[in-house]
Design brief:
With 446 residues, the protein is α/β, with parallel strands linked by helices. It has 16 helices and 14 strands. β8 (240-243), α8 (248-264) and β9 (273-278) form a beta-alpha-beta unit. The protein is globular, with a radius of gyration of 22 Å.
Length: 446
Amino acid sequence: MRRKMHLAFNLSTTHNNGRWNLPGAWDDRTFPDVTLYEDAARLAERACLDMLFSGDGTGVPDTWGGSRDGAIKWGVFFPRVDMLPVLAAASRVTKHVGFGLTYSTTFMHPYYLARLMASMDHLTNGRIAMNLVTSTRRTDAANFGFDQLMEHGARYERMEEFVAVCRQLWDATEADAMVWDRDSGVVGDPTKVHDVHHAGRFFKVEGPLNTPPTPQGRPVIVQAGGSPRGVQASARIADHVFGGDMPIEVQVKQRAALDAALRTEGRDPDSVGVLWQTPIAVRETDREAQAYREMLRGSMSPEAVAVYLSYIDGYDFSTLPAHFTLGELREQIIATQASPNGLVTKLAYKFGADATISRKDFLEQALLTVTQYENTIAGTPKHVADVLEERFEATGCRGGFMIGQAIAVIADLQSIGDLLVPELQRRGLVRTEYCGRTLRETLAES
């Protein structure tokens, strides 16, 4: 019997970075109109998707020119809201599809988040996942009173302790602790509610939670970690891993690294799936799909591209001269302690470090990268299914795909449900109906 792949849909930037204004995206609505998310949830459930997922960030990009103005003007990772109440509303119009929320363990406190997620697990009847991140943006850190970012390794140590505390809190009240006896008036059994007494490097928590035990026992934990330290953290804390959009050969290597780390932790690699971020554009014909993908070329202005790239790479690209060599620019980026693995490095590898490029050509190349134009799989249901099937099998048939960077949220969900999912169902690769009661059970289906 063939293993089933799991499919999630990433809502994170459907209203940012120019995508809100593309045909089939928001129609006459604007963010954060909750009716769009309710519609998205209905479409996702109709397609038998596992989960709607939302990433998050709490700062406004200000790397470009040392100002927030460009981000605000062009809607680059702005505006945002805490998606918990939005997805809570969407959960009320569905019964099966799950919901993933993102929070930072670098800034949050485990008691608060454990309580919040327990509450959401009740509200959704066991359909909640929390995606945990170690924040890397100085604008986010400043909003929480930090003068500088926590060191890379320390951020992961904090995350691991954070999850350990959350799990102790969720487990502190036994599953049958609630009595609710109307005759006697007894609410709970005191012998089944326990203290935590945690005292660690980062947190001191007495416990217990004051919430009743949840439908899932523990919400599903999702975590993305691509570095060696991140992979180690995934092996220790994650139920499912959010994998990056990368060439298949790199995905195979990362899956192998995760498997090795899981075995070191005494965990079964088959129990932890990877959801690979995968942008797609599926239409009935190849011509329609290619035309649909072409909309990405007009989705962002050159300045918006530069604002986006400056924020992601941590380097102010407003300082670019009219012409420059890629190697020299890369050295300048490294000297500022910004990311050495961004677009400039990729272009230097592609064209050569000594290649001279104009500012205009550089931003045109950047457009193809930041919009995911280059990586978007565009084609017929058969073509897209062929690619997904190849990647699924190459990475061990464990997990599936986070369909991300939607071109136009509602149009994409409609095409996934009407075109792609039926093709995958015909191949026996995805479910035809939900069998599990909770998200944890749904993600455990194989």
